[in-house]
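Q: I'm writing up a methods section and want to include an example of the input and output format. Could you take the sequence below and give the corresponding predicted structure tokens, formatted cleanly so I can copy it straight into the document?
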Amino acid sequence: MRFKADMAVYDKTGQLALVVEVKNKLGTSSNWATKMRRNILAHGLMPNTPFFLLALPDRFYLWKNAGIIPEIVPPNYEIDPRPFLQSYYNGPEISLNSLTGESFELVISSWLSKLLQTDILPPELREQDWLVESGLFEVIKLGHLTAQITV
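A: Here is the clean output for your methods example:
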């Protein structure tokens, strides 16, 4: 059995660097995310990648080098993405509560695509220090994104 990822990011050499699971769910906790990751690993064969991102509209959970054994491993980073995602769904008729799952996947895809376009972090993304601190930006810069892929 293979794992169907919402998104996969490959580095500039073509190696799988990041698996992204997108959930349109609000009000989660680190404990919830930890159990979600464990369940994904227990029910699928997610490949061993340097990074795994569980992306939700009000919270990102990022694991770095956490392995693929289905055990309780808390995320290395817990991020509030609203400040840097706001511009992707800014409008009077759009809010976090009104996003559909497909709409939120497009938001995440757009955000990741922007990261992948350059080898220098764009000025509007520099306040996202976790990208540099975790090493994620360095690994994925100039890479490419694939959505809805079996890895």
